[in-house]
Amino acid sequence: MSDRYAAISVGDELPEQVHRPSHVQLFRYSAATWNSHRIHYDTAYARVEGYPDVLVHSHLHGAFLTRLCTDWMGPTGRLVSLSLQVKRFATPEHTLTCRGRVVGKQIADGEGRITVDIEEVRDDGTVCAPGQAVIGFPLEATA
Amino acid sequence: MSVDERLLADIRANIGVTQRTDLGEITALHIRRYALAVGEENPLHTDAEHARSLGYPDVVAPPNMLPSVIEWGVGHPEAELNTDGTTGEHLYGVDTSSVRTMGGGETMTFHRLVVAGSRVTQTTTLTDATLREARTGPMIIVGYRNQYHDEHGTELMTCDRTMLLR
After folding, report:
1. Block mean pLDDT (10 aa), chain B, length 166
2. Which residues of A touch B103 (CB under 8 A)?
3. pTM of the predicted model, to two decimals?
């Protein structure tokens, strides 16, 4: 099966992923999740709350970070857990880059688990959403 | 109006209260629309043939889809929504009509992938609420635990979520 776990080292970086969320994407995300919060589709309302434009949903930040991990791990990996904190807002003006770095390896519950520090960063360098994920890989069969 | 000790006390009175909701069937269409909306390109979420080649009976929901959907049913008439467009329903009937709510983040633990056709139940528990002074003024931080099970009682995932009220 996979010796993926053995091949991963602390300090490895996940391939970056770049997102440019558009107004259309935010609207369709609101629709697909039946989220009627005006801050995600009503620019005039977002300005009332003091923001320059509509905001990227907290769960959409989570979706971008989830995909960073699932694309990297591939079909042999299993996303065990993922946490994120939404620290700063993002609007369609922003380009968002998701990054990850392996910070730990351990064997638990019969699988090889990789801990990854993840973050989503705006193009002005502001960290919107830091977090951490744990990804499990099957272990090589042992005698 | 801003948040205050009185609202905090109303919310805290519900700590430990649990609410169960039948989310119904998670359909392949809903999964595909969600995948399209987030820009997901993995065919596991959109192509049933590909999903079957990996041993799943149908397309699989992206891992964080379940807690991302705000309303699984019909929803509420516009006249019943708060000024910000939300229902405040997750606060167990506490009146939050004049405060601003925002997601603060979450910790998700995944047990089993969700395949199209599953019937899912969500169990929500209010776990904590605290008031603190933020950069922008007073803020109540509310914690919830959402647990998801399928129709066989299998635990699918747990999501500990933070909401910010200002």
Report:
1. 86 93 97 98 97 97 96 92 82 75 91 98 96 90 96 97 90
2. 57-59, 86
3. 0.94
DSSP β-ladder status, B119-134 and B137-150: antiparallel
Chain B residues with CB under 8 Å of a chain A CB are 30, 33-34, 36-40, 42, 44, 54, 62-64, 67-72, 75, 81, 84-87, 100-110, 162
Q: Which of A59, A78, A84 to mutate to test the interface with B (most CBs of B within 10 A)?
A: A59
Give the distance from CA A71 to its chain's centroid: 11
pLDDT digit string (tens) for A81-110? 999 999 999 999 999 999 999 999 999 999
Angle of CA points B37, B32, B155, to nearest 5°: 105
Cα torsion A90, A34, B34, B105: sign: positive
Is A96:A25 a contact under the CB 8 Å cutoff? no
